[in-house]
Each structure stands twice: as structure tokens, then as C-alpha cells.
Design brief:
Strand content: 15-25%
Shape: elongated
Low-confidence stretches: 1-34
Strand order of the largest sheet: 10-9-13-12-11-14-15
Order of helices and strands: EEEEEEEEHHHHHHHHHHEEEHEHEHEEH
Structural class: alpha+beta
Mean pLDDT: 89
Number of strands: 15
Helix content: 25-40%
Number of domains: 4
Distance between the termini: 69 Å
Largest sheet: 7 strands, mixed
Radius of gyration: 29 Å
Amino acid sequence: MLKRISKNIITNKPYLKAVKYGLFVFFAIISHNSSAYNIKVEIENCPDYIIYFGKHVGPDFEIIDSIQAVNGHVQFSGDKKLETGVYFIVIPPQTRFDFIIADNQDFTIKTNTRDILGKLQINGEKQYQIFVDLQKMIASINKQRSQLEMELNFFKMYQKDTVEFVESKIDSLNNVQSKLYSEFKNKVEPGLFLHKILNILEPFSVPDSIKAIQYSNPAEHYKYYIDHYLDRVDFTDDALLNTPEFVFHKQLTDYCYYFFDVRSNKVDEVFNDIDRLIEKTGNNQNYQRYILTYLISRYENPSDLRLEAILVYIYRNYFLISKPEWISQQAFEIMKFRIEGIQYNLIGEIGKDLILNKNNGEKFSIHDSDSTYKVLLFWEPECELCIDAVKQLRAEYDTLKTESVEVIGINTNNDEIELWLQFIDQNQLDWINAYDADNSTNFEQYYGTYKTPRLFILDNSNKIISKDIKPGYVYEYIISHKNQIEKERGRFDFMFGQ
């Protein structure tokens, strides 16, 4: 069974890696009908292994064929022309090399298992061999860089005064590599596939006039970056989607990090830029599918939960209004279920008020609590994870009360009321214990309790400021939040002379 193999095609450092299929990764490229392909592979010193032939699709790949080598020879052919892209040959157990396929699809590849990259030769189009030659030069640079990085780790521990010198040598190698992309791009005719790849790999270029306003006009400086960062991508050419992770996919990843993720404190300002990103595709359905699939995967479980708002925005504007043809009904239902669990409890939004019954029968409103902070813990007594969460929070409760924090423990299972009441008494849970006696609040939808335990922290205006943090860190989080509020208040007083 062939495992996913992922490596930078320029580094030529193959290694095995498990396939990373996200919850909403349903992107696939449809091959075009055309003439046949015929690729002959001659590998010296190769045992009679099964040789695999495949295509890159960002961080994933597609296996096209597998044939057992005979005296190091295999031949891959088919009656449909292959899409332009970066392809690979796998020689088990862990050897792989990459190559380009464009218009000429009848060519020969020769190499030797004792020096795969060094002996690699490809006929056919000129850009095929130029791509190989570039890999050879980058491989040499990477070998030097790896040695320097090992030295750097050593010097950081034992000879710190040498660190700066070694770092400068690494920077110099990085500059050499960047220049190689430009140098090799000049060897390829504009419009060819390799030229477009190298255009992406070249460092992002910024005019001196824009560099000069970085501090004097940061808004205009930022606008230039977000407007032009993806200018290097030819969104009319689907072939750039058939490249390894570090080509187009890395551009998309970096774009999301620099222009979306770092703005999580004002995530609503990102929405217009998401629309502009989609507009850059010029209604190219393949690019739109790739980008939307990636955004769903990236923000379905973000490390910063404030970014969940991006997932909700994408769902409402690009899936709910009109379901794309390329998404299956099953995948759409999974997405819908996920969105329904978070769309009403996004960080920064006002938490839904719940009219509940306390364990003594008295009714109360979550919003009516006048504490500075409210911790909502949704749990059920036959859930082991819930019991652990309750006990951790109980250990902190006395300390939390000194910071005007009220804990509201909400039972999510009315079939276990007696067991719940017993647990409250046995563990002396003297915070507010409540449940929805009439099943009328619909808290499952508003607080996403399809899983338990779930923990939310609300401030005194009932805004959700955090969720799903570990109960043992609630006190630490609240102290940090209070300190941040004090800093902001101090900054305001200083600016306005209060």
C-alpha cells in the first residue's frame, strides 16, 4: 500500500507522510480528453519493484498508475492526455523524483537508484530538463543549509557569539536560492508552465515607493500587499493547481496567515477580503473550489477560536445561498451540522440568554447574573470527561469567586436528573446548578452541546470572550483578560488625558 509521499520538489528530500484529508477536503481535478501519453522510465540498478506514477495536487496527490519494473524499465501510457502539472515517480521504499509534464507527453526519463537526482535526465520539452537542473542546484544549496542549521543549533547552546555569523551564512544561501528562481525563469519562455511556477517562487517584489511608507502610511502599505500578493499567480491556468504544496498552496496558506489569521481580534473586517480573494479567481471554478475547500479545512478547527467566524461567513455566503455543484450532499450536511454548532456562540458575540431551572426548582436567567464574569459549563453526570471538568472547576471555584466569577453548571441530560442531583450533593457543588426542565431553551443549538463538556466564559455584558478552554485554566485566563482590559483602559486615559 503506497502511503502519501510529500516533499518539496526543489529540495529532493523524499520522505513518507500520512495523507492529511481534512473534514471538508473534496477537491478533485477532472482530466481533459485529448491524445494519449507515453512515458518510458529507465532506472539503472533498480530491483523489480512496483513503480508508482502520480500527480501533485497541493498537499495531496493522485496515483495514476503502478507497474512492476522489469530490468529497471517501466512504461506508463494511457488513451487520455494528462493535464499539465508536476508529476512524480515513486521507487519503493522511499525514493521519489518529480518532473514536469506539459504538451509533449511522449518522452523518456533516465536515472540511477544510486544517484537519483544527479543522474536524472529527461528528453521532450526544454523546460522538462531545466526543471531537473534547477532541482540539482537547489539540492546542493539545501545540503549546505542543513549543515549550517546543525551548526547553528550547536552554537546556540555552547558558543552563542558565533550564532550571528552562522545565521548570516544561512541568509546568504537563502538569497542565492531566490536569485536562482529568477535566473532559471529567464531560461524559459514566458507563458510556459515552468515560467509560471518560477514566477510564484520568486520573492514578492515591492516598489521602493511602497517600502518608504511602511511607517508613515501603514494603511496604504498594507493595502498594496493584500492587493498584489497573489499577482504572481495566473488564475487562468488550472495547471498551477497540479503542483506540490509549496507552490500555489503555500501562496494561499501565507495569504490566509498574513491577511486573515493575524486580524483575529477584528475578524469581521476580514470578510470583505475573503470576497476579494474569491474575486481574484475571475470565476474560474477550479480555483474557487480549491480555495473554498482550503478555507473550510483551515477554519473548521482553528487554534484561535475567534477565527471560527470566518467559517460561518464562508458557509453562509458561498454554500448556504447556493450549494456548489462540486460538493456532495453528504459533505454539505456535515458542514451544515458543524456550522449549526458554532454560529450562535462565536467569540465576541452575545451569548444567548437561557431561562433555566435551578436544582431547587427556582427559575433564573443567565443574563440576570450581575457577576463580572460568568462561566457556563454544560455537562452530564454519566460523562467521564464531564466529571473530570466539573472536579477541576470545583477546585478553582473558591479562588474564582474572589474575582467576581460565577459558575453556572448546566445539566444537558434530563434523563439523568436524579444522578445529577446526587452528584451535586456528594461533591458540594455550591455554584448555580441548573437544567432546562421544559426542554424549551434550545441550548443545544445556541451553545453547540452536541458534545460535552462545553465551557464558555461570558463578561458582564454577556459577550462570549472564550470557550472550550480547560477548566484548570479558567482562573489564569480571567486574570489575563482583566489585565488586558486594564492596559487598554490605561492607554485610553493616557491618550485622552483622563
